[in-house]
Amino acid sequence: MHTDKGAIYNRARAKQLRDFSGLLYGNITPTDIDGLIEYQNKCYIFYETKLKGNPLPFGQRLALERITDDLAKIKPTICIVSEHDIKDPNQDIYVSLTPVLEYRFRGAWHTPKDLINARQLSDWFINTFNGRNNNK
Question: What is the Cα–Cα distance from 39 to 107, expressed in whole angstroms?
Answer without folding.
Answer: 20
